[in-house]
Structure formats: structure tokens, C-alpha cells
Amino acid sequence: MGTEKLEKKLREIFDNSKYVVPLYQRNYAWRKDEIERLLQDVYEAYKNNPNGNYFIGSLVVLKRQNGDLEVIDGQQRLTTLSLITKILGINKTPCLFYDSRPEVEEFFKEFYKNSDLDRIDYPQTIHLRNAIDYINEANLDPNSLSPVSINSVRDELGKYFFNNVILIRVEIPEDTDVASYFEIMNNRGVQLQKHEILKSFLVAKLGNLEERTEFSRLWDACSQMNVPIQRLFNADGRKKYFGDLFDTFVPPFGTQNQTIKESDQKYRSIDEIIQEKVDSCVFENKKDDENDDEEEVSEYKSIIDFPNFLMHVIKIKYNDYYNSLKKDSDSKDKDVPLNEKDLLSVYNQIKSVVEPKDFIQTLFFCRLVFDRYIVKTITDKSVEDEIKWTLQKPKKYEKSRNWKYVNAFDDADQNRIVKALSMLQVTFRTRIYKNWLQDVLKWFVEKYPSVDIGGKDYLSKLNELILQYYEERKIEYAPLSIEDSITRENSYSLGTNTPHFIFNFIDYLYWMNLERKNKNDRNDKIKDFDFKYWNSVEHHMAREWAERNGVENRENFIDCLGNLCLISKGSNSRLSDRDVKEKVQTFGSGNLGIKRQVMYDMSKDAEDTYTWTEAKIKQHYNDVLSLISKREEILHIN
């Protein structure tokens, strides 16, 4: 009997196979980040080598007596791939079925028939409906100046998905206790992560037990991105690594370390290195000092995970060397990629120059900078308008053991810096390819070992970066004269393809321009404005409404920047094709983007009527261009 090949192209995965998701499996749960990352990874592989294969993971199944394949592991990935291949038009037959979940089966049946899915409004299908939107709206190339949608590369990407994307499909024995096997895989069968393997490689390079213990202690502290790093040490550890006031950088592996006898050295396996518990008298995630009156800091969520943070540190330290290795190659991208999937492959190329103590020192410094100078969110909720930003530093009182967390800067600078950072974060929101974070961390590393940067200097640097990002996406149109009608040729009219950065940049300019004026001139909505994860471009005059009402010249101005704003995807779906009066009256309160607020205010006429015309769109468009033309003055850049 021949052995069946495990590696299967997607066309083989979806060719006459019926996959059944058993009842004990959870519902589909992938969100925007997972879906966008999968699409970006595949698109990047396609760009780098259109004829090469790309391995995307594994699929574990059990063949039932009727020939159906019961999905044991890989359900989330398989479901996402079935949605993507249907949207790409390369998989036209339903192949995914569910035990005792008729609502989900009905959803897929209608989805493959290209039916209207709005009528299938079951709680069990919400994530599937959202996933379809995420796939259609995903930017496949975050590094590109213009968004790349799945529809813009449908044909070539469809062929690559079907013929070059590879899954490992493993069939387990028929007599396996499937429920137990599934539970074991999810609870105990955790595969080593790339950053754990990298840690073992680096620790193995160190010569004695003390160095290995010190390295592991620092590495483990840095890896806990959702906890302020000073809280991960007891009082002795905080003083040792952060100075008497817990707010400076003390390079590790200093003169305080003493060489130990060779007989005390212990060499361990990779598993032992990874599982080692570090010295609890220094590294401790609890309060241990009788007189230590630490004030609890709000629990926050980091904007990046540890593996991707490692890629930033690697790029800062070794990008020049990595470039030198690539200079004679045909590789399109010669910089260290900011994607954790490349962590081990990049390390294998640079490992000859990586010295563990030198690397952990830079990692530790960057983590301290990250905690003090990069915003975090202080809520785990996914509702956009509930996200709040925090930027804090530790403050220890002299001649006292008491310490707490306070705002990183004085009030005025704090507010402006949080606005700048949150603007960058909501624009470049994915955990990979955060080039703005790379630029900020690199700037601090160049100033090493200082971590005490004044608010005005920091804001100046952030504004310099923001202007640089604008120049890469700049609007090169002149204001329209009184006589001019808006046309696609004489105006910035990209519609839903307008980069989100442009909207956030305009809001930032509006806010900064008002911030430097008399605060009493501002209304409360603008004063209290915060950037949120708005991710959908809204036409204030809806295309459907304009067509229904026979608005003249609509095709020329409907996609003009003067008619657009950025809102949440949920709000966009609720606004749909409503007229401007209903939009303003229903949704005009609360935290809105400033550009959207301005458009809503302009829609109100005397005697409480509401209009939004080509003339108002042109007026707002010209106002926005005038605002942008003053960008260097507003941001104090000479």
C-alpha cells in the first residue's frame, strides 16, 4: 500500500472533500487581526516568489465511515480559507458542514449561492459575517503607499492560493478517542513558539549558570508585554535594574556579577532552558516589601506582542548586517522584516554576530522605552468608542520606599503626545509592520543610554515622523475656485481607497491647530476628542441616496475627500444610505472624528434644516486642503 502524500495544495484540500465540524468544537472565532495576517503573509509570499509554494499550517482530520472528514484541529484556519477561496472565485462548492448547527450550515449555503446574507442574522454567524467584511476590506500590503485589496489582485492571487498554498493534512486512526485527543492537543499539546526556541539558542551560547539565569530573568520580564516591567521585579530587582528612583536604565551584566567556578556550571537541554524558573528573589510578579506602597496601575493591553517586538529589536541592532548579506541577492526586501513569522529564519542568517548579553541589553532598554513612551490601551473591550489610551511612568519618592505610576509628561505635553501616538497606532494598527514604532525605538536607541526625554523634544520627533509619513502619501491638488465644479480629475477623489492615514492626519491637524489656540474657543466634543480604531470610509452623501434622488454631477464628487470621513465598520453599516439629516440627528453626538464633526456641523442650516450639496462638499474640501497646507506651521516644524 502506498503512503498518501501529506502536503496538499488548497485545490486538493477542497477537491470533492466534505469536512464536518463536530459539536464539541467551538464556534468560528477569528477576528480582523488573524484574518488580515493570513492574507498579508500569503500575499507577501506571492510577491516574493509567485511560483514558489507557501506552507500555511496543518489540518488534523478523522475519516468517518461514510467518507466524511471530521475536523479535529485546524477548524479556524480551514473556515477562513473556505471563505477566502469562495471570495476569490476559485472554490464554488460548499465543503464545510456542521454537526447540529443548522444556522451555520444555512449561512454557508446562502453564501455559496451569492445570496443576500442580511436576512441570516443569527448570533452563531456574526463572526462569519464579519470575517467576509474583513477579507474584502483587508489591506494585503501594509508597506504599500496605496491599499491593496483582495479584489484588486483577484485573478493572480486566486491562482496562487489554489496552486501554491500548502496545508499538511493528517488523518488520525479511526479508533482514536476524538474528544480526548482534541482536549489533549488544546490543553497540553502546545508547540514551542518561535521566541521560546530563540531564547534557548541564545541561552545555550552563554558560558555559565549565573549568566544564563540573568539572561532568562530579563528575557521573561521583557516577554510580559501587558505588565509594566518594574512591577515584574521586587524592590531589590527594581533598584538593581532601574536605579534608586525606578525610572532609569541600568545595563544588565554589569560589574555586580561575579564569575562562578566551572564546577557550578550547569548545561541543560532546550526544554530545561525554556522551563527553568528564574531566581525569585529578584524576579517576582507580586508585592513583596512590607513598606512598599505601590499604587496599582490600570491593567493595560500592549499594542504589540513579544515575538513582533523582538523583530523590532533585531532590526535595530542587525539590519545593516542583514542588508550586507542580501546585497548580491535578488530579494526585493533587503531589510529585516517586522513580522514574527520570520523570527527564526532571520536569526539563522545573523546568528554568527548575535552576542546574547549584548542583545538582551538592547532588548531590555527597548522594553523600558516602550513602557514609558508608547501608548497602551486600558481596556480589553473591542468596542471602538470604549478604547482609552494610557501613557505612564513609575514615580518613587526620595527617601521613601513608596512609589506609584503617574502620567509620563506634564499635562499639556501628555495630551499632545498621546494624541500623536494614538493617531499612529489606529492608522497602523496591526501587530506586524509597525514602521512608526521602529522609527521611534531606533531614535531612542541612538540616544542610549538615556531614557529621560523631555515632552517637547519627543513631540517634535513624533510630528517630524508624522509629516514624513504624510509626504509619502501627500495630496497634490490645488483648492478649487468658485467657478470650478468638482471632477475626478481636479480633486482628490479616491473614495473608499483613501488611505486611513489621510483622515487621521486631518483630524490630528484640526486638533493640534485648535489646541494651540484659546481652549475656550473649542466645543466640548472637539476638546474631548480621542482617536479610535475607526476602519471604514463613509460617504456623507451616500451614493445610493444621490442616485435615488437624481443628484446632478454626483459621479464626479461622490468620492471626493470633501464628502468622506472615517467611522467604525458597525456605524457604516447602520448609516448605510440614510440622508444627512438622519445621520446628523441620530449619530451627531459622542466621540466622532473631527472631520466628521465639521461635516455634520456644516450640514445644519438655519431654522434647523439639513443640506449637504456639491457646494458644501467643495467648501469643506478647500478648507481641508488649506489646513494641510499649514501642516508645518501647525506642528511647529520649520
Secondary-structure blueprint:
Blueprint lengths: L6 E3 H4 L5 E3 L10 H17 L5 E10 L5 E5 L1 H13 L8 E3 L3 H11 L13 H12 L16 H11 E7 L6 H10 L6 H11 L4 H15 L11 H8 L27 H6 L30 H21 L16 H8 L5 H18 L2 E2 L11 E2 L1 E5 L6 E5 L3 H17 L7 H12 L8 H17 L28 H16 L8 H4 L8 E4 L3 H6 L5 H4 L6 E4 L1 H7 L4 H8 L6 H10 L10 H16 L1 H4 L4
Parallel strand pairs: 2-4, 2-5, 3-6
Antiparallel strand pairs: 1-6, 3-4, 7-8, 9-10, 11-12
Helix pairs in contact: 2-5, 3-5, 9-14, 12-13, 12-14, 12-16, 15-17, 15-18
Please provide a written account of the structure.
The protein has about 650 residues and is of the alpha/beta class. The protein has three domains: about 5-185, no CATH class; about 195-455, no CATH class; about 495-635, no CATH class. Helix content is about 45%, strand content about 10%. A six-stranded mixed beta sheet has the order 1-6-3-4-2-5, sandwiched between helices. Strands 7-8 form a two-stranded antiparallel sheet. β3 (about 55-65) and β4 form a beta hairpin. The termini are far apart. About 35% of the residues are buried.
Provide keyphrases for this structure.
single chain, 638 residues, alpha/beta, 3 domains, two-stranded antiparallel ribbon, 26 helices, 45% helix, globular
